[in-house]
């Protein structure tokens, strides 16, 4: 029922307005996204060991591009993410550091829905490196380190929406209604390499929209 | 995981509407009462929960399209597990209470006719206190008190419909909580059958989130009453 209502509202919005507002050739695009979260947890118990845990996650994405035709964007994105975790037990400490780096060339076709709202289709290629390092240190000073390096390449296409706030600034979100992806994975954690083809379509509209900020500069 | 069968669940929502002395001010609110009862298949586990929730929003149009307002909310609830009755009336009465305070800003954009769009951002402070009893083994029981403090920045948006000059309906479509901070403190004490303290566990948990995600759909209906 909820989904039906949302689709009905979206349909009304999309059909109630004349399509206008081209994004002209030569416009420069600059976008970014940032996510951060973390936790500090402590437990003290009678007749049992104390425990302390801290973790932080930061994800950063930067995109830059140029409109080579009206409503057609050629761009490249850089992705960086870090995950830091530290667990303190009574007799030992475990530190885990994970990092991800990636480069993502992409294309975008825009379709104006009404004056401030655009939908777009975005095919992209992602090449990424994943590194992980775990250090287990006991109170006696015994230290064990585990490292791994992995890489991945993927090609995918996803739709999105862009909503203008003011002349040059827009909020954008990928719509998780369907995805089409081909992943190639390899590295220390895998024996050999792996090719994964993933196509999924969903009629459910309750996915999370990850929001980005973007500038369109003439 | 025990399979629970909900025997009875009832939520009665009444929208409370009260007058303000300014034509550009409005008040809207929710009063809800809930009853919940559950029992596991083998009847080894059951609970009864009742709750009373009150949420009041007071807003004022500071320009044609902009609203600034305050929100206050409160909740009282009891949570009763008959298996804990061996410990007398300790587990009776109010076990949970919540208090929330918020400041909100809204932007209204008419679409023509009686329909329009609105967007809202708000900042909220919350406090929750929860008390639970549990049997541990045949003779011991554990009392856990959890207190949660939160600070959130939220975004929401949706449609509104002007039924008349004084009555508006609103339907939120999307909801996001891009910034949230939470501090939780839990203290759990185990007692023996003579009611003397056996051991104590203390936990603190602090989380922060900066996640600009939107959850769609997040549908909620509301009624707004204006006075000229």
Tell me what the structure shows.
The complex is a heterodimer of chains A (218) and B (228). With 218 residues, chain A is mostly beta strands. Chain A has one helix at residues 2-15; strands at 28-45, 51-69, 72-88, 92-114, 117-138, 143-165, 169-174, 178-187, 193-201, 208-217. An eight-stranded antiparallel beta barrel of chain A has the order 1-2-3-4-5-6-7-10. The longest helix of chain A has 14 residues, at 2-15. By secondary structure, chain B is mainly beta. Chain B is 0% helix and 75% strand. In chain B, strands 2-3-4-5-6-7-8-11 form an eight-stranded antiparallel β-barrel. The A-B interface holds A 2-3, 5-6, 9, 16, 33-47, 173, 205-212 and B 111, 159, 171, 173-174, 176, 178, 199-217, 219.
Strand proportion of chain B: over 45%
Secondary-structure element order of chain A, N to C: HEEEEEEEEEE
Provide the spatial order of strands within the biggest beta sheet of chain B: 2-3-4-5-6-7-8-11
Strand order of the largest sheet of chain A: 1-2-3-4-5-6-7-10
Q: Largest interface here, residues on each chain?
A: A-B, 30 and 27 residues
Specify Rg of chain A, calculated over alpha carbons. Answer: 22 Å
- Overall, the morphology of chain B is elongated
Percent of residues in helices of chain A comes to under 10%
Roughly how many Å apart are the termini of chain A? 43 Å
Descriptive labels:
heterodimer; A: 218 residues; mainly beta; 8-stranded antiparallel beta barrel; 1 helix; B: 228 residues; 8-stranded antiparallel barrel; 0% helix; elongated
Could you give the topology of this structure?
The complex is a heterodimer of chains A (218) and B (228).
Chain A: H1 2-15, E1 28-45, E2 51-69, E3 72-88, E4 92-114, E5 117-138, E6 143-165, E7 169-174, E8 178-187, E9 193-201, E10 208-217
Antiparallel strand pairs in A: 1-2, 1-10, 2-3, 3-4, 4-5, 5-6, 6-7, 6-8, 7-10, 8-9
Chain B: E1 4-14, E2 25-40, E3 46-61, E4 66-80, E5 96-112, E6 115-136, E7 140-162, E8 167-191, E9 197-210, E10 213-215, E11 220-227
